[in-house]
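subagent[fold] <- orchestrator: predict structure for attached chain, return C-alpha cells only, no commentary.
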Amino acid sequence: MGGLRPVRRPAGQAGEAVKRGVCVSPPAGVPNPADVVAELNALDSELFVIVEQDLYPCAPDVPLPIAVSTREHLAGCGLTGTRRPALDR
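subagent[fold] -> orchestrator:
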C-alpha cells in the first residue's frame, strides 16, 4: 500500500499509480474474481463481460501478457468466452 499512499492525495493521478506498480492482476485485488464469476453464474442469464487493462502510461508490450493471464485466470474460474467480435481490418 506504500506505493498507493502518495497518489491518494488530491494531486495524485492514475498514471503515477501505474508507474509505482499499484496495479494487480487476478487472483490478487478486490473483489475476488472467482466470487464475481460465481455471482454472475447465479443470475442464470446470458451475459457478456468486458475486461480491460488501463495501464497508461506504460510500454506497449506490457498490457498483452497481463490480458492473456487475466483471461486464463477468469477461464479457470468458469468465465469462458464462446464468441469474440470480428475485427474489421
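orchestrator: received. Logging for downstream: Residues 25-81 form one domain. The two ends are 42 Å apart (CA to CA).
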